[in-house]
Amino acid sequence: MAAVCQVTGAVPGFGHTISHSHRRTKRRFDPNVQKKTYFVPSLGRSIKLNVSAKGIKVIDARGIESVVKDLLAKGVKL
């Protein structure tokens, strides 16, 4: 599964792991992406979304209808 949130657009960040001796090696900071199922009354069916923890909070605050409307306006296939 790709580490991209469908709601917030969060993508992996890149940086360094720094050891005790201060050697730097490249690493990747993945967002906390989870597959969640939501029932959308306007569509009359359930949809599966790959959302980050922040994306889940956005859905809780704005409501699934508002978020789905924005996703459909962007052209995301649900």
UniProtKB/TrEMBL annotation:
<dbReference type="InterPro" id="IPR037147">
    <property type="entry name" value="Ribosomal_bL28_sf"/>
</dbReference>
<dbReference type="InterPro" id="IPR034704">
    <property type="entry name" value="Ribosomal_bL28/bL31-like_sf"/>
</dbReference>
<dbReference type="InterPro" id="IPR001383">
    <property type="entry name" value="Ribosomal_bL28_bact-type"/>
</dbReference>
<dbReference type="GO" id="GO:0005840">
    <property type="term" value="C:ribosome"/>
</dbReference>
<protein>
    <recommendedName>
        <fullName>Large ribosomal subunit protein bL28</fullName>
    </recommendedName>
</protein>
<dbReference type="Pfam" id="PF00830">
    <property type="entry name" value="Ribosomal_L28"/>
</dbReference>
<comment type="similarity">
    <text>Belongs to the bacterial ribosomal protein bL28 family.</text>
</comment>
<keyword id="KW-0689">Ribosomal protein</keyword>
<keyword id="KW-0687">Ribonucleoprotein</keyword>
<dbReference type="InterPro" id="IPR026569">
    <property type="entry name" value="Ribosomal_bL28"/>
</dbReference>
